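Hi P.,

Sorry for the delay on this. The queue was packed all week, but I finally got your sequence through. Input first:
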Amino acid sequence: MSNYFAAEELILNQLQSLTDGFKLINTGRSIKELFNHPGPVPALYLIYDGQKPFMGAGVEQVIDQQWLLVVVVRCARETTSGTFERLEAGPLINSICSTLLGWKPNSDYGPLTLTTAPGPIYNNGYGYYPICFSTRFTIKGTVGI
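Then the structure:
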């Protein structure tokens, strides 16, 4: 593997098949950054969310790489309870899960699985609904080879 973040482009390409429902599918740096520029909604953003070492020692390490997907919706009708935002976001999240759960980006990566995500965030009439996926891969060092 020549690029530690190669999964990003592969996942983004897979998400491009979700043409129903989203006006924008793109990458982002953080949820907080999305507050300033949410773009057209409903939108979906893919954000690198770190990694967790799984196992390994020496020159090989198995990594669980985390990818946060944030569904952004807005409902001007009612901004206090979030009910209408959830009604809009729910089917979109189901569509994402149907598209990514168990899907393998390529032979270097394991299938995508759901992991713990932060809770929803509400800001200036927008609802931000994060879901997190993880994929496992092995990274190899060259020391001692």
